[in-house]
Structure formats: C-alpha cells, structure tokens
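Sanity check

After download, print the first record. It should look like this:
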Amino acid sequence: MPELPEIEALRETLATRLIGKAIISAQSRQFALVKTYDPPLEALIDERVEDTDRHGKHLIIFIGDDHTMVIHLGIGGRIVLADASKKPSRAVSLEIRMEDGVSVQVVELGTKKRSSVHLLRRADLKEHLSRQGPDALSSELSVERFAELVRAERMQLKSFLTDQHRVAGIGNAYSDEILWEAKLAPLHMTTSLEDDEIERLHAAIGLVLPQALEQARSDNYLLVARGDKRGHFKVHRREREACPRCGEPIASIHYAESSLQYCPACQEGRHYADRRLSRLLK
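Expected structure tokens:
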C-alpha cells in the first residue's frame, strides 16, 4: 500500500501538471469508488485546479472556489496521467479530462477495490479528516505531542505506528524501517517505552520518511499502472537477508494478509516465533 512518501511525491507531480488547468469532463467508471454524491462530479466541469495538499495517505486536490477532492489509493490504487484522446483501459475507475489534453485516471490493480474518492465542499474537509492523527511529517508532531500519543494507550509499537488515528501516513513498509532505525522491537508495548526510546522513535520517523520521499521522487510507482516495485528497504521485504547494521538474518512475523520484518539481534535482541509455524504446531 502506498504510504506518505509516495503520496507526497505524487502530490508534487500533480501540482506541477494540474494547477491552473480547467476540467472539461469527470466520469466515474466504477460505482463504488466515489463515496459522495453531493456535490456531483459534474460540478467540477469548467472549474480549475487551484492547489494540492496531503494529509497522511490522503491526497487532496482543491478545485475552483469551493470543491475539494480527497483521494485514498488503498492497496492497488494508482493515478495515471494519460492522453485524453485514447480510450481508457478497463482498469480505470475514474477519469478526469483536462483542457490541455491530459486524462487524470484513477486506476485500481487487482481484485481488491479499496481506493476511495470523496468530493467535498471546502468547509467539510476538516471534518472529513478529523479522525486522522497528526501527519507524520508535520510540525504538529513534535516530540512532546508524539510522547502523548505513545503513552495514551497500551499497544504494540508496530500497531501504533500504522494506526492512522494516531499518526497519519505510516504503513506496513515504513513502520518496519522506522522501528529498525530506532532499534526497537515491533511488538514492544508503547506504555513501556522510556523517554529516550520515544525520542529515538520520533527521530527515526524524521529520518526514514524524508529519505523515502527522495527515493519516491525519482521513481514513483503510483504514476504507472503496475505493481509496487519499491526495493530500497533495509529490513522490509528482506527476510533471511543480512541486517545491514549487524549482519544477523532478518526475521519475519506473518499475518493473514501481511507480514513484518525486523532484526532479532539489534532490535532489542528479541526473536519472535513466526506465526505460520505456530499455527502448524497447534
């Protein structure tokens, strides 16, 4: 699933290509994608893209004086900038045609259609995002505010980092990288963290995400209708490879639809049982 760095790189590209351009048509090709009905998509016709923004994994496009489109790409969502003169493929769920001949297409790969589009009035944006935590790269997420969030409820660090209600923008991939950078075990409980560990975790967010953003700017897979080809991770997706810090083989914990990777030596020296094997032994 795309996370903050990829969404921010995408936002930057769309800002360069779309701001100031007028919309000449907007059509949903997949009924469940657009979650709102008022205002309708037709209200965007002849309006110009005024600005772009982002909160966590949500891409925000300001259109005209009063419309805001909020896009969440889910697992397989992409935004492709295509030639409007060509017939869109069957994978296109939403097509917005611009005055300069560009077709902005929301494409969903795979069978799990989890992308969403909300067309809102400008005044409703704050409420729409109200359940989201502070953006992981915003100035609002000071170390003091971060410490409050960490200590608010007892939960595993991996779950805390990926909970968008607490901190917005971090998912499965970069939570692995952040925890590795902070030398903290993924199943360590939030309420047992010392002050210096919280500071380390906060600093790791501020290090990992900007580095990932630089990589995303050079190769943002969200602009192409293909799979997730990210390969610049230090531990995520590196099961059994040598840890780049200590050389210990990277370990994994597997869940029903995902997995996490960590170093059992330098992330607090903890080694967890792989849940695939645990299920077989029951």
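If your output differs, re-run the checksum step. Summary of this record's structure: The chain is about 25% helix and 20% strand.
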